[in-house]
C-alpha cells in the first residue's frame, strides 16, 4: 500500500495571497548571494542528532527519502516531511518503509530567509500567510533566534550551511528546528542531497 502524500502543500496555499506583493519587487534588484540554489526537493542521507557521535548514514532499507525538505524559493517557504509511525519518530528510528501501511507523513511549514551560508526558519500553520523572516533583523540584539549560535530561546532557528566536498548537490544543515527529524535545535546536523521534485510528492 503506497504512502499517502503530505496533507498540505503550503506553496499552493500561500502563493495566491502573496502574488500581488511579489509583483512590486524591483526587477533590477541584484540576486541575493547564496551558497547554493535551494529550490526543489532534498533528502536526508546522513545525520548526527546529538552533535557528538559523528555522522551516520541513513538506513536506506527503510528510510530512503523518508525525511525530506521541499523549498519554494519564490515565496520563501520550506515544507518538512517525515515518514513516521508515530509523532516523534526520528531519522534514527522511523520504520517507514518496513510498515508502509502503518506510517504517515508528518509535515511542517516554515518561512525562511537565506543569505550566503545562513538560513533563518520560522514555523507557521499551514494555510496561514507566511511570516516575514529576516536575517538582517535577526542580527540585532535580543532577536530570539535559536541554534547555530543564535540568541536565546525564541521561535526562529538560525541554520548554518556548508558544502560537502566532492559530492554534487549535497549540503550540511546545522541545526534544524527543534523536533524536526529528531533535531535538538542546537547542535544536530543533517546532510541533504538534491532529489527530483517528484520524489517529494510521491
Structure commentary:
This protein is mainly beta and 202 residues long. The chain contains four helices and ten strands; from the N terminus they run H-E-E-H-E-E-E-E-H-E-E-E-E-H. It has an eight-stranded antiparallel beta barrel with strand order 1-3-4-5-6-8-9-10. Strand 1 and strand 2 form a beta hairpin. The longest helix is centred in the first third of the chain and has 13 residues. The N terminus is likely disordered.
Residue share in β-strands: 25-35%
Number of strand elements: 10
* Number of helical regions: 4
Shape: globular
- State the secondary-structure class: mainly beta
Average pLDDT confidence is: 84
Helix proportion: 10-25%
Keywords:
10 strands; eight-stranded antiparallel barrel; mainly beta; about 200 residues
